[in-house]
Amino acid sequence: MRSLVSLRLFSANILRLHPSRSPWLAFQRSVRHQAFDANLDQDQLAEARKWHQSFHLASIPAGNTTFSRSSGPGGQHVNKTETKATTTWPISQLLGMLPKHLHAGLRSSKYYVQRNDAISIQAQTHRSRAANTDDNRQKLFDEIEKLYRGAVPNATDPEKIRRHAALQTAANEDRLNNKKYASSKKQSRKGGGSYY
Questions:
Q1: Which pLDDT tens digits describe the chain residue by residue (196 residues)?
Q2: With left for phi above 0 and alpha for psi between -120 and 50, is residue 190 left, alpha or beta?
Q3: Which of 50, 51, 132, 168 could form a disulfide with 99 if both were Cys (CB 3.0 to 4.6 A apart)?
Q4: Which fold has domain 64-151?
Q5: Beta strands 64-68; 118-123: pairing state
Q6: What's the pTM?
């Protein structure tokens, strides 16, 4: 309770002295010089990076493809054949092939259908069923690549890690030097006596 009262007094003093500042600005940067992926599970990131090295278009499962009549250009061929391909992959099937770090983002895809709990992609740009089916697989591959790039940061190179450690060490030394300077200034006030 006492710390809450002192926090409110501190906030009131900041607002009184600096009305444009938020009272929580002093607490916003409590963790300094932290790497971007410091809060992420490093084991899951390593698993995702290893998985991505072997991920290619052939890794995509076939899915369940249905065909229907296409719309748009194509002349008489469009009216007579069913070349529009709609391919559906159940989420449970895709979760088995993806690393854990990408599981959460799969349901946020623009191709996700909540009613079926599946990814559903349509293609009708080509005049053949096989080409449209391959186009669907390519779209899913591109979507998973996009999901990977958004969820998994690149591995940090050793030089950057070394520079980060040097910055952190310099910041700690600077902080300690400032504390020592402030302490010596207070000590000189206490023991110095009167100048008159």
A1: 455 445 555 555 554 544 444 444 444 444 454 555 556 677 888 888 898 899 999 888 988 998 888 776 656 666 677 888 999 999 999 988 888 888 888 888 899 999 989 999 999 888 888 999 999 999 999 999 999 888 888 777 788 878 888 888 999 999 999 999 998 888 888 775 555 4
A2: alpha
A3: 51
A4: Double Stranded RNA Binding Domain (3.30.160)
A5: unpaired
A6: 0.62
